[in-house]
């Protein structure tokens, strides 16, 4: 366990780079400042010794003022060093947090695009932000406090036994009882109760979130009372657990803990009374009284030290949490970059016995898939939902890499092509193509940064976006997502198509789904598709069979296998799965037309 913590910390410090030394300097200064903060107690002891030695003629005590100034100087020196130390740890912590962000982003940039399907960019950013914030708190504050606490604790133990070990032991006894009482609340059968109490707290938080999330549904279905019930139950369960834990578990130990933390001197007085006769007989009663004065004052520091230990323990847990978050980002798979990239010759796309299984899945999404799209040809992927169409299309721009077999572009294995070259060669339009919160111009130009305004305009026209530009207040320069400028799903898809048209790549991979387009948009999208695919090699995921009739080859995928392939005519004649799908499709279209007529 200890070893693990050490490694966590070492790993985190690894991100500090050249600022690592600054962290250590800050920690050292914090340790020295703790030692300095102890020195005033010794000065008090020295002053008390001088005063008692000359009592009752106090004016004879000549060094008392000096000790007073010394105590002041040590206290101020301690505070100054502490602040300088904190400055060092803060500087190092900011750099470390910024390095974590930079390295995290740099690593994520190397991840295959498919990684972002299962890890939304907001989630990745959230993890990086939280890890950086945790690290910042840990390195800037907690670590300095932990080091300071260790030094404070050791120095406290030494000082406790230096002047009179019996009175020191009396002070320590109170501290030990206080710590035992504190741990008794967390250990044994109480640990189970504490876990239950924390679980109830989590349930309450979740129920609260669910309740707030579900408000729209609740309003639609008029179920206010019913939905609130779960949340209310979670609150009641939590409050019962909290009450039980506080009343039955914490009351006694917490009272003991507080009593002995704040009253560390409770054993000191009886011990001093017990020792007084001996000291009197021994002849050094003045020394005895001086020591008593020291321990009476010094016992105040014990509660500070104990409180610090508790905070230090919770601070250490941060290291583990921060590291866990960082590794969630850093464990993202990296896309392998070929050492000696090959240049694709032509625009042929070929799958050679390709199989693919998603991480964590047992059944392959694609099994031994082979097909070819000759330059300029259109290959349509059709089949039942979950058949593997999207997966197959995703392997071409390397969203993922095939588990076995080879995907070739221009006769070269895609994993052997420089990713930038591959991206230049392939344009893809998937259903979830996102638009940025930027102007339409910038959104389209993302495909080709050097494109002129006129070229962007032409691409938008080719993608049938004329009506969109006309209705937007600033035309091409309208910011999407700002001041109520929102585009419908179909409109967004047309902008994404303009982007692909501007890219002018010889190979196009596209998902023709027009699920969220109204009939008007749909006609325009089909026209944009036609422009985009003209004269290019096209791999198209087709959901509506009417669009694949003219395809050069239709690949029918079912449960990851190619069950049939051929032209529309060949497949309908074969009477297999495709023929059945075609019959079903026509019946659905007929049904739709007749129901629309009836409605008229
Ligand atoms: N990111 C993922 N992680 C794990 N399994 C996945 C992932 N994406 C898809 N799958 C699984 O892989 C199989 C093929 O899915 P795929 O999306 O390629 O099918 P599809 O033919 O495109 O389906 P649809 O027509 O519904 O879009 C399915 O069983 C699906 O559950």
UniProtKB/TrEMBL annotation:
Residue stretches making up the ABC transporter domain: 349-584
Domain ABC transmembrane type-1 span(s) in chain numbering: 24-238
Database matches in InterPro entries: AAA+_ATPase, ABC1_TM_dom, ABC1_TM_sf, ABC_transporter-like_ATP-bd, ABC_transporter-like_CS, P-loop_NTPase, Type_1_exporter
Coiled-coil parts of chain: 190-248
Transmembrane segments annotated in the record for this chain: 21-47, 67-93, 143-161, 167-186, 260-280, 292-311
Matches recorded under Pfam families: ABC_membrane, ABC_tran
Keywords: ATP-binding, Cell membrane, Coiled coil, Membrane, Nucleotide-binding, Transmembrane, Transmembrane helix, Transport
Organism: Bianquea renquensis
Chief localisation class: membrane
Protein name (record): ABC transporter ATP-binding protein
Subcellular compartments: Cell membrane
Entry GO terms, CC: plasma membrane
GO molecular function, one term: ATP hydrolysis activity
Domain of life: Bacteria
Topology in membrane: Multi-pass membrane protein
């Amino acid at each position: 366990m200890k070893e693990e913590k050490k490694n966590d910390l070492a790993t985190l410090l690894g991100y500090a780079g050249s600022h690592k030394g600054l962290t250590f300097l800050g920690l050292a200064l914090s340790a020295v400042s703790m030692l300095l903060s102890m020195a005033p107690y010794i000065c008090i002891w020295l002053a008390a010794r001088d005063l008692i030695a000359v009592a009752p003629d106090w004016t004879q005590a000549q060094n008392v003022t000096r000790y007073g100034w010394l105590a002041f100087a040590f206290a101020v020196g301690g505070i100054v060093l502490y602040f300088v130390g904190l400055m060092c740890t803060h500087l190092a912590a900011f750099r470390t947090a910024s390095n974590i962000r930079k390295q995290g982003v740099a690593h994520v940039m190397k991840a295959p695009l498919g990684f972002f399907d299962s890890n939304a960019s907001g989630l990745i950013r959230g993890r990086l932000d939280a890890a950086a914030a945790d690290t910042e708190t840990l390195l800037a504050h907690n670590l300095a406090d932990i080091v300071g606490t260790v030094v404070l604790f050791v120095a406290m133990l030494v000082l406790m036994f230096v002047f009179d070990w019996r009175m020191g032991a009396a002070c320590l006894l109170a501290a030990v009882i206080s710590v035992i009482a504190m741990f008794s609340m967390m250990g044994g059968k109480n640990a189970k109760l504490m876990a239950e109490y924390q679980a109830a707290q989590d349930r309450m938080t979740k129920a609260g979130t669910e309740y707030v999330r579900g408000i729209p549904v609740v309003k639609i279905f008029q179920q206010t009372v019913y939905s609130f019930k779960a949340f209310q139950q979670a609150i009641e369960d939590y409050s019962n657990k909290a009450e039980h834990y506080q009343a039955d578990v914490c009351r006694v130990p917490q009272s003991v803990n507080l009593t002995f933390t704040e009253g560390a001197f409770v054993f000191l007085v009886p011990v001093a009374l017990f020792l007084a006769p001996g000291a009197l007989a021994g002849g050094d009663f003045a020394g005895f009284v001086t020591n008593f004065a020291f321990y009476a004052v010094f016992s105040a520091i014990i509660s500070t030290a104990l409180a610090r230990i508790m905070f230090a323990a919770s601070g250490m847990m941060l290291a583990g949490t921060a590291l866990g978050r960082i590794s969630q980002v850093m464990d993202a798979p990296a896309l392998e970059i070929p050492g000696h990239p090959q240049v694709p010759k032509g625009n042929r796309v070929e799958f050679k016995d390709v199989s693919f299984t998603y991480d964590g899945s047992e059944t392959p999404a694609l099994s031994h898939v082979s097909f070819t799209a000759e330059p300029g040809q259109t290959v349509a992927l059709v089949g039942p939902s979950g058949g593997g169409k999207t997966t197959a299309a995703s392997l071409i721009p390397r969203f993922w890499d095939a588990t076995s077999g080879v995907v070739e572009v221009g006769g070269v294995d895609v994993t052997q092509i420089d990713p930038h070259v591959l991206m230049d060669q392939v344009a893809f339009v998937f259903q979830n193509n996102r638009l940025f919160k930027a102007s339409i111009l910038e959104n389209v130009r993302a495909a080709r940064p050097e494109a002129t305004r006129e070229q962007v305009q032409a691409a938008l026209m080719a993608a049938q976006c004329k009506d969109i530009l006309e209705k937007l207040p600033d035309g091409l320069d309208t910011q999407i997502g700002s001041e109520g400028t929102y585009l419908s799903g179909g409109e967004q898809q047309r902008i994404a198509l303009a982007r692909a048209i501007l890219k002018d790549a010889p190979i196009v991979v596209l998902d023709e789904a027009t699920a969220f387009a109204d009939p008007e948009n749909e006609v325009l999208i089909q026209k944009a598709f036609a422009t985009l695919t003209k004269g290019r090699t096209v791999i198209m995921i087709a959901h509506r069979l009417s669009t694949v009739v003219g395809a050069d080859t239709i690949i029918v995928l079912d449960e990851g296998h190619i069950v049939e392939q051929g032209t529309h005519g060949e497949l309908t004649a074969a009477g297999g799965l495709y023929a059945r799908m075609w019959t079903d499709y026509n019946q659905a279209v007929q049904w739709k037309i007749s129901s629309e007529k009836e409605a008229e």
